[in-house]
Amino acid sequence: VALSACSKEESSVLQVPSGSIIVPDAGMQGSTTFDSRNITSLKSTSIPKGWSLDNIDMYEGTITVTAPASFEDGEVRSGTLSLKGYTPTGATRNLSVFLAIAETISFAEAANCFVATAPNHRYAFDPLKGGDDNTVLQTAEIKLLWQTKANLIKYLDMRENGDGKMEASFYLEEDEDNEGKVYAGNALIGAYNADGEIIWSWHIWVTNNDPMAADNTATLNGQTMMSINLGAELNSNGSTDGDVIYKSYGMYYQWGRKDPFVGPQKYNFPSNANQLIYNTKGYATSLSYVDSTSEYGTVAWSVANPMALIKGCKANGYDWLYADSGEELWSAETKSLYDPCPAGWRVPTDALFVGLDIKSAEDDMMWDEAQKQYGWHLVDEATESEYFFTAQGRRNYLDCRLDIFNDDATLPVPWSGYYWTSTTDEEDAKALYFDLNTATRAWNGIDLSRPMHRANAMPVRCVKE
Fold it and tell me: Which of 116, 115, 142 is nearest to 129 (CA)?
């Protein structure tokens, strides 16, 4: 006979959902909520110099602090509040809360993409609005779906602001190796309803080169165009540096969908591996690939599954939609609800690219030299102005996998470029297309309005509304 004694393991919870208390100015008070279970008391073990811990309300579950009013004696603008929680039996749990004085930058207009450029700032947007001001969401919670760098955006939160309105917010840290710069990258934030279902999502474009600034825009055919691809860090402008080329690629979009998909892990597509993305805990996560069916090939399903690429449906002209035409998704007439560009910008029509041709000096280059720059300078024949477009390939319509090469077996090319427009063509949609051919210089190609299957995922160059 064997006897054993068992004791019930003590279970406790202590966490701050937002992870932070961020106040807009010196001397101001701020608070955050915390969740606890089986915690009887909570005490501070350390606090940044100049900050004061005003109150810990165990009943309401709130922590309140005040920021330093001046910085004459070594007080700090940010730091970590360390706390220790105690259970009824004396066991402990540690808790850390980030404290900071940071200006809030609010995105006043609804959009599917928000551009963030300022380090050590808090960014805020309305989580109850979708892609336009008329789309009202029943958002109960927001979560980070993915980001291209662990901790790219931090301290994601949703709560009532001082005006009694719901406000979503996140914080950008300064790149420790580049003073005054952010860690550049992209992220996707999801809105969840009370049943835990995704009802919308927003692309956060974190960059050190504001794509809407005058020096990052150009005039083409009477329209103001971003010189930077949607989601990119810069325009490589013909550089042969692999890192510079890679930073110019940006995000990939299936035609008519608002949500971005990452590109390759490296600029030259080794093994066609996807760029790594991370969840809120810093662990690697991944995209998914599904067949277009009556269940999956719908706008509603695509909105609820923004990390899923939908393969082309043969019966519907290799659209990701199973049956619908989707003509209204990216309208050629006006910015649509599902347009992926920031507020005030939209996907262009094919009229943007009229009159462009490959720069003659580059068209005459030896192909092995031209290959290194991954793209062409395109020249407006009317004004002789030049614009560089990167050749970052696409995600093809058959399986949504990355593909930088043209699929022409007779005349293979080392790279090819595609840029969506909002113009449609029966079952397809129009795109700017160009390539570099390794067989003969006479076969370098450019098509300013090429019909492409809508399940392809390709880059976008936004224009001002």
Answer: 142
Q: Supply the pTM of this predicted model.
A: 0.94
pLDDT at residue 443 is higher than 70: no
Task: Tell me which residue of 119, 178, 166 sits closest to 140, measured CA to CA.
Answer: 166
For residue 228, give the nearest of 465, 462, 464 by alpha carbon: 462
* Spatial contact of 431 and 298, defined as CB atoms under 8 Å apart: no
Residue 378, pLDDT score: 97
pLDDT of residue 72: 94
Report pLDDT for 404. Answer: 83
Instruction: Please enumerate in sequence order all residues whose Cβ is within 8 A of that of 177, keeping only pairs 6 or more positions apart, or say none.
Output: none
Q: For residue 68, what are its two tokens? A: 């330093």
Alpha carbon distance 133, 251 (integer Å): 25
Nearest partner of 413 among 448, 381, 441, judged by Cα = 441
In DSSP notation, 142-203 reads: EEEEEESSTTSSEEEEEEE-TTS-EEEEEEEPBPTTSTT-B--EEEEEEEE-TTS-EEEEEE
* Measured distance CA(367)–CA(359) in Å, rounded: 14
pLDDT, averaged across the chain: 93
Helix (H) or strand (E) holding 300: helix 299-304
SS3 62: strand
Going by pLDDT thresholds of 50, 70 and 90, the confidence category of residue 9 is: low
| Per-residue burial over 293-313, b = 16 or more CB atoms within 10 Å of its CB, e = otherwise | eeebbbbebbbebbbbbbbbb
Give the SS3 label for residue 395: strand
Q: Decide if 446 contacts 434 (C-beta within 8 A).
A: yes
* Count of other CB atoms within 10 angstroms of residue 96: 13
Q: Which residues pair with 431 in a beta bridge?
A: 420, 450
